Amino acid sequence: MKKAGTSLAVISTLIAMGAVVGCGSGGTNNAAGTAGSAANTTVTSTGSQTGVLNVGLQADPSTLDPALSSALVDRQVMANIYDTLFALTPDGKIVPDLVKTYEVSSDGKTYTFHLQTGVKFQDGTTFDSAAVRFNLQRDMAKTSARASELNMIQSIDTPDSNTVVLHLKTPYSPLLGVLTDRAGMMVSPAAVKKYGDDYANHPVGTGPYIFESRVKGDHITVKANPNYWKGAPKIQQVTFKAFSDPNVELTNLENGAIQLADQVPAQSLSTLQQNANFVVSNTPGLGYQGVYLNTSEAPFNNQYLREAVDAAIDRQTITNVVFKGEASPAWGPFSPKSPVYDAKQDTPPAPNGDEVKKFLKEAGDPNGFTFTLQTANSPVSAEVAQIMQSMLAKYNITMKIQQLEFGTLLSNNTNHAFQASALGWSGRVDPDQNTYQFWYTNGPQNGSNFSDPTIDKLLDEARQVGDMSKRKAIYSQFMDEMHKQDPYIFIYFQNNTYAYSKNLQGFQAYPDGVFRIADMSI
Amino acid sequence: MAYVVKRLLTMIPVLLFLSMMVFSLIHLIPGDPAQIILGQDATPSAVAALRAQMGLNQPLFMQYVQWMGKLFHGNLGTSLIDHEAVMKLIGQRLPVTVELAIGTLIVALLIAFPLGILAAVYRGKWADFVALFTSTIGLAVPPFWIGIIFLLLFTVKVHLFQSSGYVPIWQNPGQNLSTMILPMVATGIREAAVLLRMLRSSLMEVVDQDFVRTARAKGLRGFVVIVGHALPNALIPVVTTAGIQIAGLLGGLVITEQIFSLPGFGQLLVQSVFSRDYTTVQGAAMVAALIVVVVNLIVDLVYGFVDPRIRLTGGRS
């Protein structure tokens, strides 16, 4: 009897704990119900029915509102819900999309867009010039993450329902490139008015897939848009699942829970390439990674010390050891996919010990110096930092490593609260988007607090010239100057690396690193 | 009853103190949600404008008072990032972690009790050795490692379970268990190791006492003596440990949740800290604190059931 009493007590303890803890979520049954119904969709999607695709993402998208998005992973989902005014081809060309044809005035200050006709948003409302104006104005608002991309627009005219005329303050050649990205994604004005602040949870575009449901931190489900103006997509339903660990994402690919993964850890690349069940896509992206040096503070207010660090780093070793073929050495902000890439100028020379010693001497620190590098708290960032540390140690340059959580790293960078800060850029199609905001005096991302009249003049010139070959010549001068001044130590260009099941057809890698699921079938 | 009321009253200052701690700590971390929402290329004036829109430009004290005001009305506020009610976000995530924590504890008890009892009965013999070996392994091998090995073994090599695709248990119990069993066992092994050590040493201490010798002298079999007489007297430290474990598990399952792709409470808290979603962090931390306090109270009440000699009174004992 005593025995039974004891076990009863133990069991009742457990039940009581469960009941009490259950109360914590009481009153939110409704919410749990929503989660449930969303999850139910996943059940059907894991079945063997064709036309269903599960995609692994390296993080949970923070928002599905193009005006507020600041992460690449958001675009993986948004690119399928929204169409853009202009589109990017797999080889990096900019072509009209929701815009059918366009003209640019000879002074480069007036852009006239003739829109596609008969396009409807997924909520049934019409896509027209008023919708374009609404979107551009929304993106130009101060509290939009797009504001700096569109701040050259002076006014927007809509002479008729299919024509939009943009008047610019000054010629701005990056405009079309900007409109292939989030600033060009057209959201339904009716949906924005209906949902207000909650719009991001009810996104509506003109794109091939219609948002269906989402459980934050877990998955997002979209279904094919049967009335898509370019023809209904083949894959009927897509579920995007978030994985915070790349190895877990890979395991889910291997066991069939997902058919497409948006990242492959470098150490798994070769094994996966040998596996006949999967295809690996490993192509250069548009981004670059490196280190900001704070030019307004010791020690890096001394240009020679910046040059000494630049000459001491062996980028080839870093890409070989850490990335095993998922990155290439960088010496500029223009990746091999950029229209202004110059193999000679953007490929780093081998490290030069004599030069390093010469720079240290000229700086007045022949016996070396000490600085602290702030870097993200990820294993890859730590590995890169440690290799740099050992390369610099050869010349008595002591680099201390301070690992920070990403939000803190970003905040310190913006506030110039660092000596050296390892932070890269995911890259954009137009070269201006990879340079201007970083090195123009007081640019929004000028973490180095760098200011140089020659650089400013060249950057201004490059964004006002329309012809890409002329711009390339200007960026070449810009790079000559950057290599003298070294406000930023370029280290590597990262590749876009994906793996997918061999059953998935039609996958194409785009230089912006974003999937176009409408191209695919399974 | 008076005891329970007194305990509930003492919870108020504890929770109030915690609310201040949570609020000031999250606001002390550098970086702010406006900067994170607008991203790397935001101008300082845009960040300031968004901060004003979010109500973050008010003095911290005022923000705290407003938050507390809402809290007293049972409103945890709206997420700064997701624009959804914090209650709703927690409501979606907490059941996942609660199920995982309870399952983990059940696994732990299923491992710890038989092995702990065997170890005490066959003290210094093979069973004791097996128990000690198991608990050392359980403590030495981290759950995330066991988790990854389980994933490779049971979802890739043998398709026995699912590696992701959580559904609530009331929607589809089969699928739910298929995604939950591996994480429960992976973390349960470690918790079992802790409980097993506690139970073994507690039992061995009790076994040396007079009343156990008396029971043996009466001619009862060793097993009956242990389970019937010694075990109930050895349970107090075990119940305390289990209580601490379940409270700790509710916030400490982040890594397990990540490996098994479970949309749990721990992940919500960590993601909210990274995105500086102040309201969600505050709400989730308060709910976690409340759970710890309540679980502790329940553990204290359970003492009375386990050992009737412990009387729970409001006065001095």
Number of strands of chain B: 0
CATH topology assignment of the largest domain in chain A: Dipeptide-binding Protein, domain 3
Percentage of residues assigned to helices of chain B: over 70%
CATH class of the largest domain in chain A: Alpha Beta
**What overall form of chain A do the CA principal axes indicate?**
globular
How many domains would you count in the coordinates of chain A?
3
- What is the percentage of strand-forming residues of chain B? under 5%
Total number of helical segments of chain A?
A: 18
Summed over residues and divided by their number, the pLDDT of chain A gives a mean of 87
The computed structural class of chain A is: alpha+beta
Largest interface: A-B, 79 and 88 residues
Structural class of chain B: mainly alpha
CATH second-level architecture of the largest domain in chain B: Orthogonal Bundle
Structural notes for this entry:
The complex is a heterodimer of chains A (522) and B (317). Helices cover 35% and strands 20% of the residues of chain A. In chain A, the strands form three sheets. In chain A, strands 1, 8, 9, 10, 11, 12, 13, 14, 15, 16, 17 and 18 form a twelve-stranded mixed sheet that branches. In chain A, helix 17 runs antiparallel to helix 18. Chain B has 317 residues and is an all-alpha fold. Chain B has two domains: 73 residues, no CATH class; 226 residues, MetI-like fold, CATH 1.10.3720. Chain B has 13 helices and no strands. The two termini of chain B are 15 Å apart. Classes of the chains: A alpha+beta (522), B mainly alpha (317).
Q: How would you describe this structure in keywords?
A:
heterodimer; A: 522 residues; alpha+beta; D-Maltodextrin-Binding Protein, domain 2; Dipeptide-binding Protein, domain 1; Dipeptide-binding Protein, domain 3; 3 domains; twelve-stranded mixed beta sheet; four-stranded antiparallel beta sheet; 18 helices; globular; disordered N terminus; B: 317 residues; mainly alpha; MetI-like fold; 2 domains
